[in-house]
Description:
The chain is an alpha/beta fold. The protein is built from eight helices and ten strands. Strands 1-10-9-6-2-3-5 form a seven-stranded parallel beta sheet, sandwiched between helices. The chain has a three-stranded antiparallel beta sheet with strand order 4-8-7. The longest helix has 23 residues, at 14-36. The radius of gyration is 16 Å and the shape is globular.
Amino acid sequence: MILTKPERRDFADGVALAAAFAQWTATLLQKSVDERGEALLIVSGGTTPRRFFAALASHAIDWTRVTIAPADERCVAEDSPRSNARLIRETLLRDHAAAARFAPLADSRLSPDQELAAANARIADLPLPADLVILGMGEDGHTASWFPGADNLAEAVNPGARALVVRISAPGAPEPRLTLSARVILRARALALHIEGAAKLATLERALDQGPIEEMPVRAALREAAERLTIFAASA
Ligand code: 6PG
């Protein structure tokens, strides 16, 4: 059994969660800006964050001092509906948050090796450690693009890894991915795990139980960053 359990906030539905999570995030980012003059926010993609992104973008904090980067990216063209950069541009970088700086991970104009090198250089230039990393989770227990059975998973979930960004191919992912490694994600000042729906709540219970990280990579965050992690969960 895990020694320290992350803080957890439960909500009846995604609408209530989005409002509370956006307020919590905006307060944290503004505090970072007040204390350090800037803030680095790392966000996940997929379908779950849409409502939360729209709520967060409506908060009038000093976004000119905030940099946003993806926790992972699908290696597709940036205008693809599967692009996390497109999701972030269309649903988060608008309203008040349009003033934030965005650091994408992928660049489909480059060869895979050049793209990976460019992504590592771009992340190395950011004001690390991140002030907040927001993770999602798949029903298979993956987070960011740390998928069970992925090549390079050992490097991705290793907090001591050299790489800041790792290229991943996995049975559970329809396309190759670029993902931030544990070296970036698990060193963040604060982390949040955003999950919605009964199936993911059941996955979370299994992930909180004993078992190898390789089987459910979200365990790396639940175990190694428990003190700095807050779970935002909605049953519907
Ligand atoms: C991605 C994400 C990934 C996501 C989960 C959950 O690019 O796919 O960063 O880790 O958080 O796959 O995705 P859903 O919200 O779509 O269920």
